[in-house]
Known about the structure:
The structure holds 2 protein chains of 2 kinds. By secondary structure, chain A is mainly beta.
Amino acid sequence: GAVVSQHPSWVICKSGTSVKIECRSLDFQATTMFWYRQFPKQSLMLMATSNEGSKATYEQGVEKDKFLINHASLTLSTLTVTSAHPEDSSFYICSAFRPAGEKLFFGSGTQLSVL
Amino acid sequence: QKEVEQNSGPLSVPEGAIASLNCTYSDRGSQSFFWYRQYSGKSPELIMFIYSNGDKEDGRFTAQLNKASQYVSLLIRDSQPSDSATYLCAVNIGAGGGNKLTFGTGTQLKVEL
């Protein structure tokens, strides 16, 4: 079964609203989770690294005030897209690092469409 | 120069043939290398990982790493139509780079009947 759960799978929202995406590691504790964005026919672009109990580390060009990340527990990280606009429409994917075996597992992704 | 480069394809192979996917990376200090498979509209799933020079086999898949040439490849034997997907090469850039992976743009593989 899936070791990383991501919800919702898809969301359609109006421009200006905020959307929260959840990422949970189901059977291991993930001190580090990652958030990616993927536009059609393009590769995954890392947005930020989410560290449990501390502030997220954002990649260059990613607005931290627009993409709020909270990693309140060892099994849950959330990404909130604030004041979403049509250009934020994308496939958002989270991943969690499992220390045992040093493997990175991906959530199922969230397709965000902003009207 | 991109940090991780792949030919975008599509790479078309007949069913039963060997598919060879290639990836080059720029940082000589990279330690860990991964191949992910991604179906359209889905998130990536881990196929193989390799840390040491040489070949690593897992079922129909073989990963090959050559750190001197900064080259990693994935061979898929007895290709099946269900193998048709985009294959992403991912590299842990730099020694001590932690768990952050840099992805190539992916190679689209089409296995034809």
